[in-house]
């Protein structure tokens, strides 16, 4: 069901500035760059940037790659998780959702048709 740890998402009040900063830090261009989301492939993992949400401590969520976000979300709920943020399209067909595990940890899932592991 889980494909592996894939993505960490950081929020930034000014997405273009954040993209420019991470472009300089990483020395590469984002593989996906739209006003609603920017994604960098960093050694087989994704650094995602979004323009809204909490910033600073508590503003990050690690996302596990899944082939079907709706099915994964339902399975996690069936196993005792509680909904935190319903699966939703953040743009371009990228689906995100979060649950709280039975120990109150936020667990994120991501279905991202653009992200490819290096071969």
Structure commentary:
The structure is a single chain. The chain has 119 residues and is α+β, with helices and mostly antiparallel strands. The chain has one domain (4-111): Roll (2,3-Dihydroxybiphenyl 1,2-Dioxygenase, domain 1). 18% of the residues lie in helices and 40% in strands. It has two helices and eight strands; from the N terminus they run βαββββαβββ. It has helices at 15-26, 69-78; strands spanning 4-11, 32-34, 37-42, 45-50, 61-65, 82-89, 95-100, 106-111. The chain has an eight-stranded mixed β-sheet, covered by helices on one side. A hairpin with a 5-residue loop joins strand 7 and strand 8. The longest helix has 12 residues, at 15-26. The chain is globular and about 40 Å long. The protein starts with a strand and ends in an 8-residue tail after the last strand. 24% of the residues are buried. The mean pLDDT is 87.
């Amino acid at each position: 069901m889980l494909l592996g740890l894939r993505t960490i998402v950081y929020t930034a009040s000014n997405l273009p500035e954040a993209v420019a900063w991470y472009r300089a830090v990483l020395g590469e261009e984002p593989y996906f760059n739209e006003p609603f989301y920017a994604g960098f492939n960093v050694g087989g993992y994704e650094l995602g940037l979004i323009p809204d949400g909490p910033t600073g401590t508590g503003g990050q969520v690690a996302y596990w790659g899944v082939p079907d976000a709706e099915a994964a979300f339902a399975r996690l709920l069936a196993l005792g998780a509680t909904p935190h943020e319903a699966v939703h399209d953040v743009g371009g067909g990228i689906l995100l959702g979060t649950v709280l595990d039975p120990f109150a940890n936020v667990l994120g899932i991501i279905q991202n048709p653009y992200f490819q592991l290096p071969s």
